[in-house]
Amino acid sequence: MRKKLGATLVGLSLIGLPVLATSSAQGHGYTDSPISRQKVCANGGMTNCGEIIWEPQSVEGPKGFPSGGPADGRICAGGNSRFAQLDDPRGGTWPATRVSGGQSYTFNWRLTAAHATTDFKYYITKDGYDPTQPLTRSALETTPFLTVPFNGKIPPYTVTHSGTIPSGKHGKHLILGVWTIADTGNAFYACSDVQF
Asked: Does the keyword Cell division apply (predicted)?
């Protein structure tokens, strides 16, 4: 009886593995070039990050940015209170990727699960941006400096986009990457601190 019960439990646990492994297989991803706040946290580059250290790919919120989407001050976390640490400017001390205005740059997303995609858009903060304040729409240039249409196609698990870093910027800025999903009401958000 004990052998049968043990074999049954092992069999059930093996059957359950694929279900557990795929239950979170929705569209998920983050930018690692320039490195996003969620990836900085997952890499241990910042402390007191909360749950995002285990789920850098899960910064998902309502799509429609900038007219819709997460509320001001909650953009870097995608409006998701579980990841509110990403919205904390931490006095402007987030590690920043060095960039130069006008340089060609390869933006990189890592996807843990792909999804039918509308587009990827990249926004940058305006001149006079204060890195000690939470991100708001008024702090961003209103037009994305790079838009990559996907027209409902499913991207690969590593997505790269070539673009040009906007000229005329100085000091610390923030680049917001928005991956808009075609067949859900959501998008993924990634805030990357950069230093000109």
From this structure: no
Write out pLDDT tens, residues 51-103.
999 999 999 999 999 999 999 999 999 999 999 999 999 999 999 999 999 99
pTM (2 d.p.)? 0.86
Segments of the chain scoring below 70 in pLDDT:
1-27
Domains of the chain, first to last: 29-195 (2.70.50.50)
In degrees and rounded to multiples of 5, residue 178 shows phi and psi of: -125, 120
Q: Which value, to the nearest 10 degrees, does the dihedral of the CA atoms of residues 36, 105, 114, 80 take? A: 30
The 3-state DSSP class for residue 193 equals strand
Residues near 117 by beta carbon (within 8 Å), at least 6 away in sequence: 27, 150, 152, 153, 154, 155, 179, 180, 181, 182
d(CA 134, CA 114): 29
Q: Which of 16, 135, 131, 167 is nearest to 65 (CA)?
A: 135
Rounded CA separation 146/163 (Å):
6
- Is the omega angle on the peptide bond into residue 34 within 30 degrees of 0, that is, cis? yes
3-class SS of residue 151:
coil
